[in-house]
Amino acid sequence: MGSAKNKSNASRKARIAEMRRAEQARERRNRILTIVTSAVVVTGLVVGGVVLIRSQSDDSDPAADTKTSGKLVAGKDGVRTWQGELGRTHVAKSVKYPTEPPVGGDHNQVWMNCNGDVYTKELKNEHAVHSLEHGAVWVTYTSKAPKADVEALAAKVKQTPYTLMSPDEKQKDPIMLTAWGHQRSVTSADDPNVAKFLETYVQGEQTPEPGAACTGGLSE
Question: Which residue ranges are recorded for the region named Disordered (predicted)?
Fold first, then answer.
């Protein structure tokens, strides 16, 4: 069994490493394209961006998570899974999510960096949800979580690509783990369910956009 687990972990690490190499290649190509086409793009963005922002900021815009419906249903393994539909529309205003932290839904077009990033301030849900769409696991905690657990979780996140961590005083439990469409609470940093959740949902089968970037977004 130990041998099979080691092979699984090695395969997972190799898959993540390959995605990171592909992401870096995409970023290099994007920088080249940006330099070549910047003069044309800037003009188009100035005009189009103003129109887009005005349109999305309008209170009459129905894009505030209208495609999300359903609820979280607890499984025997303690993982709560979203039963229903999760919107994936890019919006430029606040979204009212049915869960805290949210497990998906409409979100901002800019994601939070999630390459093992640890944040000390609460994040805007709209940006973090975009990270979930890219296959990240979001670790959140309240002030009730022991300092030692917070520090241990931060160390684990920093070593795990496609993860991010931040405080969230609005959640119901001291420590929670969230992926797109999935969520669970854990009792401590050494709870075995932490490693199990990360292994299952970091770039897991639930990912709407597997291999999408976890860098090049917001850093705070």
Answer: 1-22
